[in-house]
Amino acid sequence: MEFVVKNKNLNLGKDIKLADSTFSRVKGLMFDEKIEGDGLLIRPCNSIHTFFMKFNIDVLFLNKSLKVVKIIRNMPPWRMSKIYWSAWQVLEFSGGSLNDEIVEGDYIEEVCLN
After folding, report:
1. How many Å apart are CA 60 and CA 52, to the nearest integer?
2. Ranges of the chain whose pLDDT falls below 70
3. 78 neighbors 50 (Cβ within 8 angstroms)
4. Regarding beta strands 89-94 and 57-62, do their DSSP bridges make them parallel or antiparallel, or are they unpaired?
């Protein structure tokens, strides 16, 4: 999956993995040495934890319209986020890799690769 920030010409990643089964959502990035590919999309999801993780992550909480409702940068292991009731899915990236131009209120778009 590939995602970009609308109207900013910013690519978030061309190889974002999807976690949409119960097991893949619960496991997330636990026990991994690094993020496989460019990032991880977890859906449905409105709260995350970094228990058993070995690295910091950058996090975008998105609503169903793919609007960024919350950004957490460099979230360290062994933390829990708040519940963001308006969020429906979460994009996770390696800590420090998220472009500083991305702000809450931006819209993300999935690029269809045919």
Report:
1. 20
2. 113-114
3. yes
4. antiparallel
CA 23 to CA 27: how far, in whole Å?
6
Q: What is the share, in percent, of the chain residues with pLDDT greater than 90?
A: 79
Task: Reduce the DSSP state of residue 38 to 3 states and report it.
Answer: coil
DSSP 8-state secondary structure symbol assigned to residue 42: E
Q: Please provide the DSSP assignment of 68-101 as one string.
A: EEEEEEEEPSS-BPPP-TT--EEEEEETT-S-TT
For 15, the 3-state DSSP assignment is coil
Predicted pLDDT of residue 112: 79
Residues whose CB is less than 8 angstroms from the CB of residue 60 and which lie 6 or more positions away in sequence, other chains included:
68, 70, 71, 90, 91, 93, 98, 102, 108
Which residues is 111 bridged to in the sheet?
2
Domains of the chain: 2-111 (2.60.120.1140)
- What one-letter code names the amino acid at 5? V
Q: In the prediction, which pLDDT does 114 show?
A: 57
